[in-house]
UniProtKB/TrEMBL annotation:
This is WD repeat-containing protein 4. Gene3D superfamilies: YVTN repeat-like/Quinoprotein amine dehydrogenase. Residues 394-403 have a biased composition (Polar residues). WD repeats lie at residues 181-223. GO terms for cellular component: nucleus.
């Protein structure tokens, strides 16, 4: 959600639909945006990606500012687009060094932070929007970054990578690390700061768990196994794709790859999220978000039913009728502009690390060496190719006077 606008990205197309009023939708074709000039000042040639100067114009990540007045988009051609929503206007098109995986605005909305696949985080000014204004390198990981958030007080920037690490850094001095949140056993795919408890952090991972942290100390407060909550223990891989909450932070929705359900939680205390309801979905879910009226939107990979809308009444979430005006308007626009929904970036299966055991080969080779030592060799080759006995007879040396 970008204010009252529901923004979706499908391939190279960006579509924004107003959820409350019958306005003209905004559609942006990234392939029609003029290619930004490649900067050389910020390029790290020692780590520059090889063979990736092309691209498909596909949208890789997007983020909205807290007020909903700005939207940042990054695409497969390593461009960062900054848009204003009132009215919809493209403010700038700048280059990034490498393809980005996550975006986040600072709370003062004076900068947008971009995490890339090499593990670096750059900040770009939203006030100096000239095409040649470079980004500033802020921090880096040794692994691909997958999620990025900035805290509500603008004090910390929190990053998560493929190596199961969550790092909490000071925003004003990102080289100073406040804490690490370490407990996941697979890549960390989602981060979320609940509005009602700004000192807490939700994290989701490819290990199928949802964790709650006190991020300033790195202390884990809660760990929830989503496969057990859904009563599907036989599911091989479950990855958290999205964590979202209502405006008051009371209701938390978690969407996972590999599960055709949407799990709802309620934050009754600052240190616990209680599972409340599981919403079955008719097809594979792509994303989910809450609008300012605390209605829950779910994006589906279904041409006939691209979106669902849920409202909370009588202590339960109920699905709205397809003829509900807001849902009908959004559905009609998405059917035209936002289908199908291809995966522009890395698929989840590519993020899992492939384990292998090389001890079997090592033991086999070691056994072969030991076997060769145990086998007696009758003869050894001479330098001229002839063979001589292994044991030679030694004769006593003669004295100088003897013949």
């Amino acid at each position: 959600m970008c204010g009252e606008w529901l923004v979706t990205a499908s391939g190279k197309s960006l579509t924004a639909v107003h959820t409350r009023e019958d306005r003209e939708p905004f559609v942006l074709d990234c392939s029609a945006v003029e290619q930004a000039t490649k900067q050389t000042a910020t390029a790290d040639t020692s780590r520059e990606e090889s063979g990736e100067e092309g691209g498909t114009d596909a949208v890789l990540a997007l983020a909205a500012s807290a007020s909903g007045s700005l939207l940042a988009v990054t695409d497969d051609r390593k461009r960062l687009l900054l848009l204003r929503t009132q009215p919809w206007t493209l403010l700038s098109c700048r280059c990034v060094v490498r393809r980005c995986t996550a975006l986040a605005f600072s709370r003062d909305e004076e900068s947008v932070w971009a995490a890339d696949k090499s593990g670096d985080v750059y900040s770009f000014s939203t006030t100096h929007t000239h095409t040649h204004t470079p980004g500033e390198l802020q921090l880096g990981h040794l692994s691909m970054l997958l999620a990025l958030v900035v805290t509500a007080d603008d004090r910390y920037v929190i990053t998560a990578d493929r190596d199961e690490k969550i790092r909490v850094s000071l925003k004003s001095a990102p080289h100073n690390i406040q804490a690490f949140c370490l407990a996941h056993t697979q890549f960390v795919s989602a981060l979320f700061l609940p509005p009602c408890h700004p000192d807490r952090l939700f994290s989701g991972s490819g290990d199928g768990t949802l964790m709650l942290w006190e991020y300033s100390t790195g202390r884990r407060l809660q760990s929830l196994e989503l496969t057990q909550i859904h009563q599907e223990p036989d599911t091989e891989r479950v990855c958290v794709r999205r964590i979202a909450s209502s405006a008051d932070g009371r209701h938390v929705a978690v969407l996972c790859d590999g599960l055709p359900k949407l799990q709802l939680f309620e934050m009754r205390t600052a240190s616990e999220a209680t599972p409340t309801q599981s919403l079955p979905l008719p097809s594979s879910p792509r994303d989910t978000t809450f609008d300012p009226q605390d209605r829950l939107w779910v994006l589906l990979d279904d041409q006939h039913t691209p979106a669902l809308l849920f409202t909370h009444t009588s202590q339960r979430w109920q699905q709205c009728d397809a003829l509900q005006p807001d849902l009908k308007r959004v559905t009609e626009v998405l059917r035209i502009h936002s289908l199908p929904f291809p995966d522009a970036g890395l698929s989840v299966s590519q993020l899992y690390k492939v384990g292998f055991d090389n001890t079997a080969t090592y033991r086999q080779r070691k056994e072969q060496r030991l076997q060769q030592k145990r086998e007696p060799a009758a003869t050894y080759p001479q330098s001229n190719g002839a063979k001589r006995p292994r044991h030679t007879q030694h004769t006593a040396p003669t004295s100088p006077g003897n013949p």
